[in-house]
Amino acid sequence: MINFSWNSVLSELVDSSDRFPVDRIRTHGYEALDAACDMKGDLYDYIGHIKLVNGQVLSDGLLLDDPSIAASRRVDLHVQKHDEPVLKLCLWDQAAAEFWKKFKASAGAARVILVTTLNPKCYGVLSLSSMTPSRVFLDDDIQETRDYLSWFISNQEVANRIIADVVVKPENATLGELFTYMKKASAKVAWFECTATIDDVVHGTKWYYIGCGECHTKATRGPTTLMCKKCGKSEIVGVAQYLTKLSVYDNKDQAFLVLLGDTGEELFGKKAATLVENYYEANEDAGEDDIVPVPQVMIDTIGQTRKFIVKVSTHNLAGKTQTLTVTKVLPPEVLGVQAEEVGDEGDDHASGSVKRAADGDASEGVKRARSG
């Protein structure tokens, strides 16, 4: 960051021996992105050839569901740079709209994509997520994509080769196996897929936080405005993001899971900001510092059996907490036989949870949450 004071003087440098290189776009490879994953540091540019669009293999004239993309404001891609591993690339909002507009104009023939300002995350596997300032370029848009397209056309054998290390699903584990793994001296940060039934939405604390509208980092209060330490901005637009704790169980064990940001939307079907806005619209007398009760749409998930991708973090390994962070909630249709087995063996527990939620006899947590 360069700061200028009121008495700074700027003058044109007519002749200088220093020559600054033109560096409009700086793309990174798999290793650099993997090292930066979840570090909440710099944002990165990435270029590669498209393998899948919303799970569909590329073909000329590929048609996607326009209404679905418009409603979700999201496009999921699998992209590969040269002969590196395939990466998951998630485009949101404006970046998703920009991609879809250009991809549709190409009649589904676009093969190369470059996206700027990406945040490397790990949702079970290394993924790249677009941000508000991200821009999307395809095939012939700029020199970088034209150069890559030329390589792609000349190296079909390499381009069609798939190194699928990062496409492999996280290892399945029960809650008990997760707790056992966390106690091992040799355990490292890892991601697992577990099936569990939601027993309660934990009350007593806010189920959301106010984050930066661009990077989603928790906002801090300034004298008159909200500020973001990560972006370095002294005035930002605050947006409600999920910070929701669930009590869940499987056949033998019980655990607490935390949903952050977009993962809450995957489970509850709505953005946290929408639910908060709905509350204040329905309660005009509510103040800014009032506790917003847990919405009914969240309570309605009690009794559901879902698959969660969870992260065993350094805090778990250090014994500071057993609460697991959810990085992705899989849709109900991918549950399959394993979910049915959990439901069959845990019918008494599940039906009891649903009955408590319906009758309100034993679910004091839900009662208090609903009353604020």
TrEMBL record:
Keywords: DNA-binding, Metal-binding, Zinc, Zinc-finger. Transmembrane segments: none annotated. Residues 356-372 have a biased composition (Basic and acidic residues). Residues 339-372 are annotated as: Disordered. It holds the Pfam family Rep_fac-A_C. GO terms for molecular function: DNA binding; zinc ion binding. Residues 191-284 form the Replication factor A C-terminal domain. Belongs to the replication factor A protein 1 family. This is Replication protein A 70 kDa DNA-binding subunit A-like.
